[in-house]
Amino acid sequence: MGTGLQEVSVKPLALLFLLVMAVLTLKLSRRYAPLPLLITTCYMPLGQEFIIGGLHFQFFRIVLLIGVCRVIARREMSDFVLSPIDRLFILWGIAGVVLGTFAEFTWERFVNRAGDGFNAFGAYFLFRCWIRSLEDVIQTVRVLAFLIVPMGISMLVEKFTTRNIFAVFGGVPEVTLVREGKLRCQGAFRHPILAGTYAATLFPLFIGLWFQPRIKRWIPVAGICAAMIVTVAASSSGALLALVAAVIGFGLWGMRCRMQGVRWGIVASIILLAMVMKAPVWYIPAKISDLMGGTGWHRSYLIDQAIKHFDEWWLVGTAVTAHWAPAGQVLTADPRNMDITNNYIAEGLGGGIVKLGLFIAMIVMSFKSVGRWTKVEDATTESRRMFVWSMGVALTGHCVSFLSIAYFDQIVVIWYWLLATMSMLCLLRYRAWDMFPEEEIVSEPIAPSLGTEHG
């Protein structure tokens, strides 16, 4: 492993971008402090990085480091309180680093696991320090509605020119990918599915923004339109399914107090399908692909192989899956592995059944938090309950996308942001003064469990 700064191809424009994000991270008020990191996630490919001592510092990691320095300098963790989701997240992160390293006990493996751990802990706990109320989340989504518009425009340009304008920064191909005759635009993300998923999981939040008072209607409309453009331009069935899941999720708003019955209905349907199908129930995506095209067979086959080779990964995970793959489907860039296009399976491979179980537990706890908030009629206004529901719909979109792609680039930042907002909901009490800034409360509040300062 080398020492010192290695040769990199960082562009002057990218350096200027990084400088602006660094200044904004240090200068913005607490409520808007997450924005530079979210902007970097959306618009800067991982090809722009510094390599120091063999360690890769992509721009979003540098922004993370600057954010940590800000939090320490301003003591923004002084009133930090752990939520149940926080505790699960800490255990999940530790399992990923420790158990994931034991899967192949080498220095390179440890550095890789530690790097992922830094991304996770850094992003998640920065958002946890900066997000104190639902109003903070709403304002962030409001700005994200602005930010996704240039992304939508860039994807349209890519769709019509077959050239990715973000290729100038490296890390993404210049010529747009084509599959089955369809252009698959990807913007600054490493794969079209990830670009489409980013937009599809923000789509429900923009719908939730529509119902908020004092929000100009053109802002969520712009976000909704841009999110749909990005999702369609990516030509990804996984992202489109996440978008469909959002539509279905909002359709269930009227049944929010009877979701337990809906869940049991889904379980019963799966059991019934398992009884009537000749193939295992997880081959449903393969059947759909037979009708509509796509890579459903591969995804079904991957689940089948993960179950058959359960003994190889259940304890600490595994770093070798090439023998799972059918002929000719081993990754060219990594001959020891097949393409793991399922985030749930990737969790198990990265830390065994413990890491996978903790990951699912965080999701379940998040859904429970959404359910509690949306069922309490006197907790806040209808518009706020609708926004909390939109957060749950966004979470559903991620859960659907996890079946078609493993998150392996900067999209993890938006996932950690959503988890951090769910953790915030866990801590807030069901009272209006926990949901709004103090100046918006008419009645006299008692001291909230989390701070609501704006600076």
Essential attributes:
455 residues; mainly alpha; two-stranded antiparallel ribbon; two-stranded antiparallel sheet; 61% helix; disordered C terminus
Topology:
Elements: H1 12-27, H2 35-43, E1 49-52, E2 55-58, H3 59-74, H4 84-102, H5 107-130, H6 134-161, E3 177-179, E4 182-184, H7 192-210, H8 218-233, H9 237-251, H10 259-276, H11 284-292, H12 296-308, H13 310-313, H14 343-349, H15 352-375, H16 382-401, H17 412-427, H18 432-435
Antiparallel strand pairs: 1-2, 3-4
Helix pairs in contact: 1-2, 1-3, 2-3, 2-6, 3-5, 4-5, 4-15, 5-17, 6-7, 6-8, 7-8, 7-9, 7-16, 9-16, 11-12, 14-15, 15-16, 15-17, 16-17
Overview of the structural elements:
The chain is mainly alpha-helical and 455 residues long. The protein has one domain (12-265, 338-435). It is built from 18 helices and 4 strands. It has helices spanning 12-27, 35-43, 59-74, 84-102, 107-130, 134-161, 192-210, 218-233, 237-251, 259-276, 284-292, 296-308, 310-313, 343-349, 352-375, 382-401, 412-427, 432-435; strands at residues 49-52, 55-58, 177-179, 182-184. The strands form 2 sheets. A two-stranded antiparallel ribbon has the order 1-2. The protein has a two-stranded antiparallel ribbon with strand order 3-4. A hairpin with a 2-residue loop joins strand 1 (49-52) and strand 2 (55-58). Helix 1 runs parallel beside helix 3 and helix 4 packs antiparallel against helix 5 (107-130). The protein is globular, with a radius of gyration of 22 Å. The two termini are 43 Å apart.
